[in-house]
Backbone:
């Protein structure tokens, strides 16, 4: 039997990355194009096709491909459409799966990038073969993908799994994009960490901190990490607080779907144990006894640069 | 083709109810025995068998039965066992599905009563044919059953769906049985409503209220309802607050699994719109736009006296 391959495409707000992936999760070839260079989505797909065709030919042509998987903002698996994505140029409802299939001649499945990340973990990553887990992406925002019985949870309309927008501090910090107060994303994202830093520095004006030497723009999670590693009290409290919020939220998610693992992914995870330890402590403290010490809390093992392509490609393997 | 029937058994802390159910959800015969009269579970099952055998004969004998469904505390669908149920007499891990099958000669499926309630709604109730919904039972405690893709969510170990224990007010009211703080059950249960009444009456000592004429034991959700209907300010605020907590929690559940409906069941729902209106308002206010005005929030249409037997029986229909 000939080896089969999948195309993985990750449509981000700025860049679209794509590549050819084998069943072991190796990316044989990859490239990227800007996402918003083309006014019409048809031109964007033509561009993709011109770039991918030689890659597909290099692995024996279209007959060796199982399909195309695509992760994209506001992508709906059921309808195959991208719906009103705020950071893409094509407005309204774009039937991208159908357009791709017409151009490439093979089946295309789409979902949002967070769901694709979860599929990638199940197919190639830390949760290979696991049928009950949740991935949480801690980046600019907080994304999530939920796997139950080996399937991604999509809900009645395809929009399930928005755990970053669940409320963990009712009436708490304003999340500017959504207008919600006290959502997980308002705290456990890159922006959230910066806001926590500003809050704590303002709350304790007398407390010396290395963080006071940085401008607001420089107060990234990386800066906070570096200061925390130098023993800075405020920086350590920022991770303690972020871990508390995240841990409490994870406890709630566990009592919903009883996963055997939670995989953390994204920029904030570079903080390692500084984030993991308080998260685990607060997660365990808020669980019913029946769930305690059962759920593995781990970091993704996928390379961040590959994960988006891998996750998208995972949509089309049987 | 001969009409088929299912046995439904609901094992409660005090009473076990059981009956013969047809596919339309009619209970043809039913009876009850005490749950904790028998020291050995085998004697309990013998008692059940002696009561159910004539009922089964009345519908044509065992060959017309599709199986036995049982709802019981701490019942695990995967293993068929009741595990360390605090309010039952049989301690440890009881292989009740196997024992039942040996005695009756037909397949027995078990799950906890909240999951059974959800199965009942899908098979016979307000969510007939719906594949994506959540039931919330607002009784002495808060139970939940989650349906995704037409299947009950059990998780990796069979214990998923403990939404009553999710935290909605971190650091909030102590839930005495679990030691958790700020869980949904600490507020939106019969006990929770009483605690809210006491809190508000203590917080506003100058505020006149009909509720002050009742002893603490008399401060049931029914008393609060009656006072609220007479225009009592404190009583109305109790439902407003309970609805706020419940609505915020429901918003979080919706952003997890994107159900098309949430069914409320149990004693507190007798408060009708007094509870439903604030719940819906706070639920909608905490949803992302993509989920707003899409989720039906309804009361169960199953008779409370029948629901437990119906729900259990729903486990065994294909």
Residues:
């Amino acid at each position: 039997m000939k080896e089969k391959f999948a195309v993985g495409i990750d449509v981000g707000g700025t860049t679209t990355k794509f590549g050819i992936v084998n069943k072991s999760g190796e990316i044989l070839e990859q490239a990227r194009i800007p996402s918003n260079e083309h006014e019409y989505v048809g031109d964007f797909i033509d561009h993709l096709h011109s770039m991918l065709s030689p890659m597909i030919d290099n692995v024996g042509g279209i007959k060796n491909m199982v399909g195309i998987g695509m992760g994209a903002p506001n992508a709906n698996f059921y309808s195959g459409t991208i719906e009103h994505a705020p950071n893409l140029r094509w407005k309204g409802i774009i039937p991208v799966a159908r357009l791709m299939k017409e151009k490439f001649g093979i089946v295309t499945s789409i979902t949002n990038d967070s769901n694709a990340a979860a599929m990638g973990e199940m197919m190639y990553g830390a949760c290979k073969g696991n049928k009950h887990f949740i991935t949480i992406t801690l980046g600019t925002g907080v994304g999530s993908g939920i796997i139950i019985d080996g399937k991604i949870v999509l809900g009645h309309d395809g929009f399930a799994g928005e755990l970053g927008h669940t409320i963990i501090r009712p009436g708490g910090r304003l999340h500017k994009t959504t207008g919600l107060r006290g959502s997980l994303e308002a705290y456990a994202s890159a922006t959230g960490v910066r806001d926590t830093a500003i809050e704590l520095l303002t709350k304790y004006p007398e407390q010396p901190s290395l963080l006071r030497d940085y401008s607001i723009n420089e107060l990234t999670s990386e800066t906070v990490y570096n200061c925390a590693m130098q023993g800075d009290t405020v920086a350590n409290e920022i991770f303690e607080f972020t871990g508390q919020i995240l841990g409490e939220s994870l406890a709630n998610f566990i009592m919903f779907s009883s996963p055997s693992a939670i995989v953390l992914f994204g920029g904030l995870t570079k903080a390692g144990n500084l984030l993991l330890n308080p998260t685990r402590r607060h997660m365990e403290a808020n669980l019913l006894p029946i769930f305690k010490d059962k759920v593995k809390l781990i970091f993704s093992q996928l390379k961040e640069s590959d994960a988006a392509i891998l996750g998208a490609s995972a949509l089309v393997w049987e």
Observations:
- The helical segments of chain A are 41-58, 96-104, 113-123, 190-203, 221-229, 233-257, 273-285, 304-313.
- The first helix of chain A runs from residue 41 to 58.
- Chain A touches chain B at residues 131-132, 146, 148-149, 151, 153-163, 165-170, 178, 180, 248, 251-253, 255-260, 286, 288-291, 294 (CB under 8 Å).
- The mean pLDDT of chain A is 95.
